[in-house]
Amino acid sequence: MRTSTANSYATSLESLVNRQASLSQTQEQMTSGKRVNRASDDPAAAARAERALATERRSVSSQRAVDASNNAMALTDSALGNAGELLQAAREAIVSAGNATYTDAERSVVAARIADLRSELLAVANRSDGAGTYLFGGQGANQPPFIDAPGGVQFRGTTGAMQAASGEALPLTMDGESTWMQARTGNGVFETRAVVSTGSAVIGAGSVNNPAALTGSTYRIDFSVVAGATTYSVLKDGLPTAQSNVAYASGQSIQVDGMATTITGAPANGDVFQLAPSTSSLSVFDVLDQAAAGLKTRNRSTTQIAQANAVNLSNLDSVLGQSLAGRSQVGATMNRIDRVTERLSALKLSSQTERSNAEDLDMTQAISEFANRQTGYDAALKAYSMVQRLSLFNYVNG
Known about the structure:
- The chain is of the alpha+beta class.
- The protein is 54% helix and 14% strand.
- The strands form 3 sheets. Strands 3, 6, 7, 8, 9 and 12 form a 6-stranded antiparallel beta sheet that branches. Strands 4, 5, 10 and 11 form a 4-stranded antiparallel beta sheet that branches.
- Strand 10 and strand 11 form a beta hairpin.
């Protein structure tokens, strides 16, 4: 078999070019730190790396939305904390106004204090996140959700809550209407009222002693005083019940269909008290407005003051409980945000690991391979130089 000089030239040159290309590729990998710099280097690994990168970017994007929700909920928690402090201050003011030694002028001072607290609460309810979104605006959070109208504070936001743009249902706002305007009246199940009260009797808030016996009906307690003997009759939705002409004793529990309440003092003939189902219609602002208006009213009797104070405290406890429930909901959301953040962090780390496994370079192996290829390249250079000297003139001169 004969090998021509031209073939030797071509073969040695091709070998030199291939080794130079291989050495250059290894140098590029060592410089970038990546085994796969373009899809043609390893199509399968490049596809794995691209999928991992897309997953990582989605997790980063979702985390930004989660962070926005976390910031909004932290601000909301702070606002509800401030609201709780203001409502507690209002409660203390109402309790102090129940002091029998207070004059009408002193009660007017307390009413002014409650009005100031109400103004502060309105500012809290209209608090924003500093970027134009109102914390309690619900789904329409681009304008103050509460307005102070002549008839009282009104909610003009949109029911519901704005959600963060992530895979998780995380809120950016709260439903201000349910938080501030929809506390339950009375004790949460039923409310007591003094419909007609000309005597000195005061009815308490009452409690539930048998939930299974509740009917949802409205009950009246009618008093009759004949020859110094005080009795009462209970009517259910206007119809007589078995409790008719029952002897009355101040402070004794009156029980009817799972409900119990106490009436203290001396009712007058014809006095009427009522037990009606509770409704979700109690506004925190209306409660404070009614309390302030009552305290400004002059020449009330001791009984009227005591009854009004009992109602005001019951209503205030209800709206305070609603505020605490809202704060509890925010706390639960923040706990969920922490769990979502942990999951996203784990997903991001997993994606980064998968991407690294697909495209990153083993530097120790690369250095060894580079040394081997450099040795091969040097050998190819020597072989090529020797082939270059294979000519008749070199042979004759030799």
